[in-house]
Amino acid sequence: QVQLVESGGGLVQAGGSLRLSCAASGRSISTYNIDWFRQAPGKEREFVAAITSNGGITSYADSVKGRFTISRDNAKNTVYLQMNSLQAEDTGVYSCAARFSTTYAYWGHGTQVTVSS
Q1: Cys-Cys with 95: which of 2, 15, 79, 110 at CB 3.0–4.6 Å?
Q2: What pLDDT shows up at residue 73?
Q3: Strands (E), 1-117
Q4: Helix H segments across the chain?
Q5: How far is C-alpha 87 from the chain's CA centre?
Q6: Is 39 exposed, middle or buried (0-12, 13-18, 19+ CB in 10 A)?
Q7: What is the dihedral of CA 83, 52, 5, 67, to 10 degrees?
Q8: What integer is the mean pLDDT of 58-79?
Q9: Is 6 exposed, middle or buried (0-12, 13-18, 19+ CB in 10 A)?
Q10: Dihedral (C-alpha) 7, 11, 12, 14: value to the nearest 10 degrees?
Q11: Could you say which DSSP state residue 65 is in?
Q12: Residues 34, 99, 55, 35: what is their CA dihedral angle, to the nearest 10 degrees?
């Protein structure tokens, strides 16, 4: 069993930066692809970014491309989401999920990001 715990969220002014962490415990996540999602109040959850198990391939939603960077450190069993040039539209609860192929095996509970304009 894997537990995913997100951290690093908070309140930041527009234009600012945050780095989110998705720390895994219980077993290694080195064989899993990891995705970040976010959900704003009253909206559906949306995909933000993804990284393959070895970190070789990353992908991003168009809305965050060029501003967010996903990375991972398998030795630390942790995945990161560096968020720069934050905008009010980036506000939401950010969650990470461990995926094997197209199946999501584990989800974290999320961390709140609030961007004030």
Answers
A1: 110
A2: 98
A3: 3-7, 10-13, 18-25, 33-39, 46-51, 58-60, 68-73, 78-83, 92-100, 103-107, 111-116
A4: none
A5: 16
A6: middle
A7: 10
A8: 98
A9: buried
A10: 120
A11: T
A12: -30
pLDDT digits (tens, 9 = 90+) for 85-102: 999 999 999 999 999 999
CA-angle at 72, arms to 70 and 78, nearest 5°: 115
Q: How far is the C-alpha of 58 from the C-alpha of 34, rounded, in Å?
A: 10
- Cβ atoms within 10 Å of 75's Cβ, excluding its own: 8
Q: What are 84's two structure tokens?
A: 């720069």
Q: Which residue has the tokens 């004030």?
A: 116
Pull the structure tokens for residue 19: 């780095």
